[in-house]
Amino acid sequence: MKIATLAAVMAAASAAFGELAVKDGDTLAFLGDSITQQGQSLARLDRDVLSRKPKVMTLSCGVNDVWHHDWNKGVSLEDYKKNISAIFDKCAASNCQVVVLTATMFEKPEMEKFKHNVMVAPYNEWLRDEAKRRGYPVADLNADMWKAHADDPSVKLTRDGVHMLPAGNRLMARGVLRALGMAEDRVASFDWENWKPVWVLCRFDLKPDADKTDYLAKTKSVLAAVRAEPGCCEYRLLGDAETDWDKPQRFGDRTLWMLEKWLSVGELKAHLATPHMKKFGPSVAPMRTSSSFHVLEDVLP
Predict the structure, then answer these.
(1) Is residue 203 within 8 Å of 255, Cβ to Cβ?
(2) Which CATH number is correct for 196-296, 3.30.70.100, 3.30.360.10, 3.50.50.60, 3.40.50.300?
(3) pTM for this entry
(4) Which of 62, 127, 168, 173 could cross-link with 9 by S-S, CB 3.0 to 4.6 Å?
(5) Residues 61-119: tens digit of each pLDDT
């Protein structure tokens, strides 16, 4: 799952529509396929999830359990039930609300007959029933994917039948937001398709007499506010790495770089117009001999 993308979607949506089950300051955890370390979700639940005391955890398991049967690493339905039940029990004991994601479909030729889609069906049927029994909200992503293909047979949601393209990520995000309590009209009205992520690379060269410690302190004072802005995926101040490698070009400790990622140019423009940035910019500009500002996009998606 694209954690960074989905987390940014959640932050942006929460800011726009404040009715989600996850509130500002809550911890939201993601546990699922493609980050399960080959079926070890249960084994690492305490270390990677519950130790961080999340209020809500989304659970997406089933694709690897079925798919990995091709390499004799799959999980039988009976073992799957035992393992997922144990995850549910541990979360309940830790007061962590679980949002259940059904296992996504395999986007392959003759999908209705494709062996993994046939195999995953009872896993999802049990997930739906068990979630209902426990009172857990369900994001039925499998059903959403089948509906998308029924509505438009030419739709392409994955790049290889399993891992999502942007359209698939948006479908998953919609499903999770519905499960977290967002009203359907608001999910539908959100401008997902016009999000085109951009990267920002800024170079700052400090004056010889500028107090670098003060510069770093001023930057640190706005980090939390910027990272909480809708559409902010990444915002980091960087400098030369300390290594014994003589190959990289070094710029020196008076040169700093800001690396940013935003969901779209619109969010970037809104960021630059925020009160904290309007205050921050003039406070550090006199400390620089030069600066550059570059907005970049993916050349190879």
Answers:
(1) yes
(2) 3.30.70.100
(3) 0.64
(4) 173
(5) 999 899 888 888 889 999 999 999 999 999 999 999 999 999 999 999 999 999 999 99
